[in-house]
Write a structure and sequence with these properties.
Elements: H1 3-12, E1 15-16, E2 22-28, E3 32-33, E4 46-47, E5 50-57, E6 62-67, E7 70-78, E8 81-86, E9 92-97, E10 108-111, E11 116-121, E12 125-133, E13 141-143, H2 146-152, H3 157-162
Antiparallel strand pairs: 1-2, 2-5, 3-4, 5-12, 6-11, 6-13, 7-10, 7-12, 8-9, 8-11
């Protein structure tokens, strides 16, 4: 493993994430929302907001998944990130997260609630942050099944199979 990647993982105490990459939760609001104030099929209570550090490394990817909240991505360090987004209506768009405005990269971008998305570094590593509101809960997380997702969005079949593990 690259020395810089190992240092980042050790320094920030990052753990492997089920979708790919490494992460550490850095914030969880103590304020909560009751179930009656939640949308998108969320049940129970949710913290108002959560945040993580997220590290993507070369020769790996974050597989297609979706959550029931908006997710705001922040670029911190390393190489640009490609975030592939398939909205519930089938519209596809690519977000380039990074620091080079001349390459149409942005420091922050939102993946809307309910959209399928996957990501990959364009180089050796990318250190980003993700803020979720209402806060992240694994009950709201769904990892894509490639066959089912490709059947739902056949125009994106090649991309889906490139970014799914099953």
């Amino acid at each position: 493993m690259n020395a810089i990647i190992a240092a980042i993982i050790q320094s920030y105490k990052l753990l492997p994430h089920p979708e790919g990459g490494y992460y550490k939760e850095t914030y969880r609001s103590v304020m909560e929302l009751e179930g009656t104030h939640l949308q998108n099929g969320m049940k129970g209570k949710r913290n108002c907001s959560t945040a993580i550090l997220f590290l993507l490394v070369q020769n790996s990817f974050s597989a297609f998944h979706r959550i029931k909240s908006d997710e705001l991505w922040h670029f911190y360090d390393g190489d640009p990130v490609q975030i592939h987004v398939i909205e519930p209506n089938g519209n596809y768009h690519l977000i380039k997260l990074g620091k080079n405005a001349l390459r149409n990269e942005v420091f922050q971008a939102v993946v809307p609630a309910g959209a399928w998305f996957a990501s990959k570094t364009e180089g050796v590593y990318s250190l980003v942050g993700c803020t979720v509101a209402p806060g992240f809960d694994f009950a709201d997380f769904e990892l894509a099944n490639g066959e089912r997702l490709a059947a739902e969005f056949p125009d994106q079949k090649e991309l889906i199979f490139a970014f799914c593990r099953h």
